[in-house]
Design brief:
Number of helices: 17
Structural class: alpha/beta
Helix content: 40-55%
Shape: globular
Radius of gyration: 22 Å
Oligomer: single chain
Strand order of the largest sheet: 3-2-1-4-5-7-6
Largest sheet: 7 strands, mixed
Number of domains: 2
Distance between the termini: 16 Å
């Protein structure tokens, strides 16, 4: 697999590729990964082929498949990202309709600016990230879009607006968390940015109108069987699960979810977003609700006794280390819940795949508190216990170096890998 270059696990390759670059996603991966797997598996020659992605994210797998005319289906548990994917898969866009709406949006802003008060209507977080005049424009664009009858144009314009949010903020919001220590030079007017993004998206859509819509996304948590996807119906799985690195995917997109009214506060993020996601952060659970004895009564333990017994030893070590650290992060619980959740996802992957199919997963190993966790290998062993025949690990790159300057950072070399399940 010579195509597995060091950046295949990042979205850098997508930055200049139409449709793929419609949304900048922190945890994205390269479209080349999908394209090459499609080629390796000869899916283009199989009219009955279908790709499955249990963590659709910003839709890289589904968009790549649809571009090549191959059927694909995916799950995405976050409402906001679900809409991003739907917009990226919607190529039935009329140029005249877009131009008409653009003119109407501009007029709407002009007519309503004086009566609109961001101090009254805007979310408090947004007031700290945008200049009042720009924020007023952003909210008025959103207000116009919300009145559209056609859902496909709502999705299209909201996606353009979400990218405008990135480009006109006072501080970077595209990194895992808001970077308030950096100040962006955002002198370009909101309208110029928004209309430019819309025109680019329209240009990218040119020539795609008549292409078949071969990809479909479900708003669904992959830890639970999706009844809309039949057993033994998919030819390959291509995905990149959350890493065990304490990244809170529920909070990463909070600027967008607050702006679009999906969430309003910390509790909303927990109840409406985090609970639908694989446990990837210490903010995803209550420590008081975790019980090792209860976990030992679960199917996760019964099917993976050797693996889980080893995880319990690691759990106890991490618990002891954490007790003597200032942050006292419950990485021991995070680790157990992460692998329990991933066991459920792997079970669903196995269910939907055909008997001869493979799964390709981009994964990273971890070392909470300097205690190495071979995430990729552990998930490979779990896969064997639930019905896969074998697994193979291919290293993409070494990782974790950019944090070495931190005082309490470990010095272990971590890896990013491709896990292939057969």
């Amino acid at each position: 697999m010579n195509f597995l270059h060091s950046e295949i696990g990042s979205a850098k390759d997508n930055n200049n590729i139409p449709i793929h670059n419609w949304y900048k996603f922190t945890a994205g991966f390269s479209h080349k990964f999908v394209d090459e797997i499609i080629n390796i598996e000869n899916l283009g020659d199989d009219k009955k082929a279908r790709i499955f992605d249990p963590f659709a994210g910003c839709g890289t797998t589904l968009v790549s498949a649809q571009k090549l005319g191959i059927a694909a289906i995916g799950n995405e548990a976050q409402n906001f990202m679900y809409d991003v994917i739907r917009a990226k898969l919607n190529w039935k866009i009329e140029e005249d309709e877009i131009k008409l709406h653009i003119a109407e949006i501009k007029a709407y802003i002009s007519l309503n600016r004086k009566r609109y008060s961001v101090k009254v209507n805007a979310h408090p977080l947004l007031l700290t990230l945008y200049e009042p005049y720009k924020l007023t424009t952003l909210y008025l664009i959103k207000e116009y879009i919300s009145q559209l009858v056609s859902n496909k144009y709502k999705l299209f314009f909201n996606l353009a607006l979400s990218q405008t949010l990135h480009k006109v903020s006072l501080h970077p919001i595209a990194v895992p968390y808001i970077s308030r220590n950096k100040l962006l030079q955002t002198k370009t007017p909101v309208w110029s940015v928004f209309s430019s993004i819309v025109k680019k998206m329209l240009k990218d859509s040119d020539g795609l109108y008549d292409k078949l819509s071969t990809a479909k996304i479900h708003l669904h948590d992959s830890r639970v069987p999706n009844k809309n996807i039949k057993a033994n119906s998919c030819s390959v799985c291509i995905t990149s699960p959350p890493y065990l690195n304490n990244l809170d995917y529920g909070e990463v997109s909070k600027v967008h979810t607050h702006f679009f009214g999906i969430t309003d506060n910390w509790e909303d993020i927990t109840s409406r977003v985090r609970k639908k996601l694989v446990t990837g952060s210490t903010t995803h659970y209550k420590e008081s609700e975790f019980s090792l004895s209860k976990l030992k009564r679960s199917s996760f333990y019964n099917q993976n006794k050797k693996v889980v017994d080893d995880l319990i030893r690691r759990h106890n070590k991490l618990k002891d280390i954490g007790a003597n650290r200032l942050g006292k992060k419950s990485f021991h619980i995070l680790m157990m819940l992460y692998f329990k959740d991933m066991y459920m996802v792997l079970t669903e992957i196995r269910r939907v795949l055909k008997p001869s199919a493979k799964a390709y997963l981009i994964l990273g190993d971890s070392a909470p508190y300097g205690s190495f966790i071979p995430t990729t290998k552990i998930l490979g062993k779990i896969a064997l216990n639930i019905g896969f025949n074998k697994f193979k690990i291919i290293k993409i790159r070494s990782r974790g170096f950019k944090w070495k300057s931190l005082k309490y950072r470990h010095s272990l070399e971590l890896t990013e890998n491709v896990l292939i399940l057969s």
